[in-house]
Amino acid sequence: MTQPPFIRYQPERVPIEEGLRRGREFHAHLDRRRSVRSFSRDPVPREAIELAVSAANTAPSGAHLQPWTFVAVGDPGLRHRIRLAAEVEERRFYQERDVPDWHEALAKLGTDEHKDYLDVVPWVVVVFAQKQTLLPDGRLRKNYYVNESVGLACGLFVAALHAMGLATLPHTPSPMGFLSAILHRPATERPFILFPVGYPAAECRVPDLERKALGEALVFTS
Asked: Which residue ranges form the domains of the chain, and what is each CATH number?
């Protein structure tokens, strides 16, 4: 096997106190992030979406295959089609599907089948996971650790939006096949998550929630 090329990696070595200060500031910054369902119609420049996806592209991925596609939808007519199709699936979930525990878990968030924010936000970004990738020579390449890789990229995408003062809401109507049809994506991809992107509305309100305590999320072993 041919030895792959390697380049020298020498990131900045930050003094520990400075590193901890940065870590505390980063946590405080992210701790102010909230998912919102009430957006402003104020425009968001295309460059903001490009920067957020560029940040997502820095995520680690299985075998560095980067099995994701971000589809940014700015056209109001197309966003409305996505809203109507999403609400069809959401009505089935809220009104027909027998999943009482799931419905109970969502009750504290005040969610329902109405997704009017998809008509309000200037952008809807749909992330697709590439189960396979079509290569230039026509062959199909299998991708590895697809869910893990795309999930990491989505996390960085959300963090980048927050850094720019933007808000979003991870939305996963089930099933999501309608997104492939509306956006004409190939069969090698499947919809992974949908992100409305915009500024929070002036009257935006969010549920009064507490995040998991550090002691619940972190275990040190001896």
From this structure: 53-204 (3.40.109.10)
Pairing of strands 189-198, 167-168: antiparallel
Greater confidence, 166 or 109? Answer: 166
| Rounded Cα–Cα distance for residues 148 and 61 (Å) | 8
Other CB atoms within 10 Å distance of the CB of residue 9: 5
Cβ atoms 38, 114 nearer than 8 A: no
Tokens (6 digits) for 180:
């492939």
Q: What are the Cα distances from residue 136, in Å, to 117, 140, 180?
A: 38, 9, 22
**What's the pLDDT tens digit per position in 24-62?**
999 999 999 999 999 999 999 999 999 999 999 999 999
The full DSSP string for 107-131 is HTTT--S--THHHHSSEEEEEEEES
- Give the pLDDT confidence score for residue 3 in this predicted structure: 78
Residues 169, 7: Cα–Cα separation, whole Å: 38
Residue among 6, 149, 172 at smallest CA distance from 67: 149
